[in-house]
Amino acid sequence: MFSPAFCPNPSCVYHSLPTLENPHRTVPFVRIGFYHTLVVGNVPRYRCKACGKTFGVRTFQLDYYAKRSLPYQSLHQAFYSGQNLSSIARLLHCSPASIQNRLDRLSRNAILLHQLCLRTHQIQEDLTADGYERFDRNQFFPNNINLTVGKDSQFIYGISHATLRRKGTMRPEQKAKRKTLESQWKPPRGTLSASFAFLLQDLSSFWNPSFDSPLTLYTDEHPVYPIALRKVPFLKHALSQKHLSHTRISSKLPRTVQNPLFPSNYMDRELTKDIAAYHRESVCFVRNVNNGLSRLLCYLLYHNYQKPYRIHWGALHFPSHAQVAGIPSTRFKKKLERVYDERFFLTQNPLTPLWEALWFRRYKTPLKMNEEYLPKYTYKGYTQASIK
Ligand SMILES: [Zn+2]
User: Fold this and answer.
1) Pick from 255, 348, 307, 355: which is nearest to 11 by CA?
2) How many Cα atoms occupy the beta-carbon half-sphere of 112 within 13 Å?
């Protein structure tokens, strides 16, 4: 018998999740028949007696509004094993757009699971930050995918993105083409330091300089990092109080395990190896920035919470990167078990601005003039201050 733990209506008093004080709360709902779908046949319909709204079982499922059921776990595994969208689509006999749609859905669950862990976490290790240069749409729009990574755990803490201006030597016709493209769309000035500052601002959700242990941030010698640090008031203050230190490492040092930038170098290698769009000379490059970031979030879900920290052949159980970072498995185990089935609700898990930008698809795609599409049900009732 279906029994929801909460009412899906964000303005209902029964919308919040059961608490420790009230774990066995009964939601007052009644069965009122069913509605028919072509996907799964008849779906029972219910009404919440507290708010009067009706809902079906599918309201709580990751496949809410989907017109076809696809196996999320197989699709996810194929994705993080290096298959591109077309290849997965051929495997599952559907269109590449359907695969992107399912990865978008999964990425939203990944954001909420990750936020749930970070919100209650105090960082227990130093951090490395780096930007990985790839491109979106075409090679005239290089980007930086910026990640903060745990120095001991290789746990990915945060993600941000910046589109850059194409640099380097170009032939005259390439210069002319860049000029034409830039007359249509050009990245704003200072976007890289703004993107890093945005990423580093999120540290405040899991590191408090006044109470937690001092932190060291390792980066390469790119001049953008000191600029970005100065843009974040609490980090600027922490630097002056010596709670935070910034160590810059030459990128020319051998990329070994002993190199303090090993976690960032390791992530660069893993992303290049595992994600089709980041393979060298790939023809599966990202066409839409937000779609690319959705896929990266699906990779974060796998890397942080599913993949063993180190794989030794023959051994059965190894902790995930999250556990090595000090996040107990009890905090995410239940959500992880349901990540391919249930729809996690944004209105029960407020996001920090870094994750809101990803959820609301706020990153701009070069040359794209139309607004990004985001289904209304994904944010209906969300009232965080930074919502547009
Ligand atoms: Zn209700």
Assistant:
1) 348
2) 22
Question: Ligand 1 center to residue 334 CA distance, Å?
Answer: 24
Does 148 share its domain with 79? Answer: yes
pLDDT tens digits, residue range 137-183? 888 999 999 999 999 999 999 999 999 999 889 999 999 999 999 99
Instruction: Judge whether 384 lies within some domain.
Output: no
Number of domains in the chain: 2
pTM: 0.94
For residue 165, give its domain range: 72-378
Same domain for 169 and 200, yes or no, is: yes
- The residues pairing with 129 across neighbouring beta strands, listed in sequence order, are 148
136 and 200, same domain (yes or no):
yes
Residue 385 forms part of a structural domain: no
**How far, in Å, is the centroid of ligand 1 from the Cα of 31?**
13
Is residue 86 a part of any domain in this protein?
yes
CA 156 to centroid of ligand 1, rounded, Å: 36
Are the CB atoms for 162 and 192 separated by under 8 Å?
Answer: yes
Report if residue 182 sits inside a domain.
yes
Question: Separation of 11 CA from ligand 1 center, angstroms?
Answer: 8
**Which letter, b or e, does each residue of 126-161 get, where b requires 16 or more Cβ atoms within 10 Å of its Cβ?**
bbbbbbeebbbbeebbbbbbbbbbbbebbbbbbbbb
For ligand 1, the distance from its centroid to the CA atom of residue 61, given in whole angstroms, is 17
Domain end (from 20, 38, 60): 60
Inter-helix orientation angle 224-231/233-240, to 10°: 100
Instruction: Please say if the pLDDT value at position 357 is more than 80.
Output: yes
Residue 148 CB partners (closer than 8 Å, separation 6+) = 127, 128, 129, 156, 157, 158, 199, 200, 202, 203
* Judgement on whether residues 46 and 97 belong to the same structural domain of the protein: no
